[in-house]
Amino acid sequence: MTTFDVAVGLDEAAMSQAMAAVYHELYPDVFTGSQRVERAGLEFDVSWDVTAPPTVALGPPPEGRRLVAQHLVAHLEPPPGLTVEQLIDAYVTTLEHTTFRVVANDMTMSIQGGGEHATVPVKVTLYVQVDSFGPHLTLRPLKATGTTGNPTDDWFLNNIILPEAVKVAREFLPGIDLPPFTFAGVGLTPPAVDVTTGHVVVLAALAGKPVPTPPFPENWPQSPFFAIMSDEAKLAIGRAGVRSMVGRTFGDSGRVNIGIGTAQYAATARIAAIDIRLADQGAPQFAFNAAISGNVRAGITIGCTTFGVNYTLVAAPPPTGRIGLELSGTRVSARTQHVNTFLLILSPSGNPLEWLLSALTAPLLQAVTAAFSPLITKAFEGLSFPVTTLPSVSIDTSGVRLVVTPTDVHFATFAGLTSIEGTARITGG
User: Fold this and answer.
1) What is the pLDDT of residues 122-172, one digit of tens each?
2) Torsion of CA 383, 387, 389, 391, to 10 degrees
3) Directed axis angle between helix 64-75 and helix 84-98, to 10°?
């Protein structure tokens, strides 16, 4: 059983594409720099240049436990009652689900001083944690690691470039405000974030339930973008969508010749209830079953005498059919796809005389059913309601504004649940 009702994911390639867009707008003002440093009585000028866009790497970092252990041993004392190992276990569990890496594979470091000058290739990895508070995501640089393959050069890397990488990242990595994401008026909890191998996933539950917590699915759809609805969320959407139809009333009145006299009538029919169920597993559809109730009041005139007759109106079998989800761009809506044939049955009520007179009023019954059946059918056939708009996410950093928008989306099935999958388009700059 899932702990989430809605999950929206974006893949590693799309995040790298966004990082590349930021790089091209900010380079060389960012991603290059220099510092003067003293070592062993000598002064050195150290400069660096990230010569190509960094990439984003998702999934548990290699040697993550060792890095966490080094950091905790150096900076934290375990609280009373906890061992260092228990503290490490707790941090590793949290970081595995909330941390990604920004990797600069194409980078050089130049060192000049002491009568020498050298330029060496370096690789720097920045570890970033995603913190969520309400709809706001904070990207928090934790640590930078790297290597040059030379112990002397590593000193400059560790003491100059890596601390600078963390400092610069704290300045330009943006906070991200997630847009409101609701389904047909169905409220959701604040989001939780799960960083997996291949995707960053934002998860929420239906309002009133706890915020989702691990364990989350180990595997997600492979598409660059996806949105998944649980069965419970889909049912909530369907029930909210048809709520306005419950209680809808239809009326008709008239005069009918019944052969031995005339019948003047007034009739009402009402949609008393609509039950929403799941259709085929994972299909973007609902099945519905409606209850119809009503009554007919007639005055039957035979000669100079008028008799009152009352009927109870019901549908048997009741109206049933299917409502399907539809996609138009990033807009998701629902519309009736099919209404099954149903019958309206009128049963006389009251004293024996009413039952006797009702046997003479077949033309009246035909008139009422001929009026109401197409009205009720049309009401269900015309049912449609908006569900949601797949969200675009805006990213603002250092004067650069990017918008990540789902595109080329289609319905699919994931683990028996309804999903919407597609790609992501990065625009702006």
Assistant:
1) 999 998 888 888 788 888 898 899 988 888 899 999 999 999 999 999 888
2) -170
3) 130
Residue with tokens 């112990």: 151
- How far apart are the C-alpha atoms of 156 and 186, rounded to whole Å? 55
Between 328 and 215, the higher pLDDT residue: 328
For 417, the token pair is: 């649940």
- As a whole number of angstroms, the distance between CA 385 and CA 382 comes to 10
Distance CA 110, CA 259 (A): 107
Report the distance separating Cα 374 and Cα 231, nearest Å: 32
What pLDDT sits at residue 39?
A: 87
Reading the block at residue 202, the tokens are 């934002």
Amino acid code (one letter) for 326 = E
**Is-contact 300 258, C-beta < 8 A?**
yes
> The tokens of 24 are what?
């091209």
Exposure of 271 by Cβ count < 10 A (0-12 exposed, 13-18 middle, 19+ buried)?
Answer: buried
pTM: 0.84
| 390, two tokens | 């797949």
pLDDT tens figures, 213-239? 888 888 899 999 999 999 999 999 999
